[in-house]
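Quick one, T. Sequence first:
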Amino acid sequence: MTSWLIKGEGLLATLLLAIIVLLVFAAGVMRWFGYPLVWSVDLAQLLFVWVSFLGADMALRKRAHIGIDYLVKRLPPTTRAVVDLVLGAVVLVFLLTMVVMGYQLTMLNLERQFGDSGISYAFVTGAVPIGCLLLAVTLAGQMVRTARGLRTRPEPVFAAPSAIHAEEVVP
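C-alpha cells:
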C-alpha cells in the first residue's frame, strides 16, 4: 500500500475513535440532563466495528498481532519463512472467503434497520468484506516480500524480522 493510503487509514481510525468517544460522552451528559440520545449508542457501536477492522489491518501491517511461536521460532530461518508462507496462504483463503460471505451478508442486510438509529444494518456488516479485503491485501504484500527474500534473506510473514533473534525468558 502506498504511504498516503496507510496514513489515511490511520487518520480515519483516529477520527472514528474520536467520534465514538464524543458520542458516548454526549450520550452520558444528555442522559444526565434527562434527554437521552438513544441513537448515539447504536452509532458508536457501528463505528467501533469499523475501527476494529482498521486497527486489525494496521496491526497486521506492523506485525503486532499476538501469536504463539514457541515452536516455529526454533526452526531455521528459511524453514520458518516457508511455514509462515503456508500459514499465510491458509489465512489468505479465509480472509477472501470472508470478503465474499461478508458481501453476501451485507446485501441481505440492506433493508434491515440497526437498532433505533434508522441506519441500515448494511453499514455494520459492510465492515466485514471491506476490512477483510484490507487485511488480505496487507497479508498478500507481506507474503510476497517474504517469498522474494526466501533464498537470500528469509524473514517470517507474521513476526517482525527483529523479533526473530529476541531472547526468550522462560520461567
